[in-house]
Amino acid sequence: MNLYTCTSDKCLSTGDECLQLRNTEDFFRKRSLKFSKLDATWIHFAPFIVSPTEGIHVEVINMIASYLHVNINYVESQSLINPLAVEPKFKENFYDFSVVPYVNETTQFDKTMTFTEDVPVYVTPRIVINKKWQIFYREFDNKIWICFFIMIVFLYILFKFSHLIFPYKSDFSAFEIILGVLLGSIGEINTRTISLKLLLTLYVFFSLLFTTIYRSKMFDMMKTDLSTQLITSREDILKSNLKIGMPGAPFIRLLKLSQNPFESALVANDRVINCFNFTACVDRVVFNKDIIAKRLIKAMQFLIPAIYLDSKGRSLIYIIKDPDVVPFHFGILFLKGHPLFEKFNKNILLLKEAGFIRHLCKIYESNYEKAMILAQNKQALQYSKLQLETLESTFFIYLFGITASIIVFSIETYL
Question: Which of 81, 187, 314, 360 is the most exposed place for a label (fewest CB within 10 A)?
Answer without folding.
Answer: 187
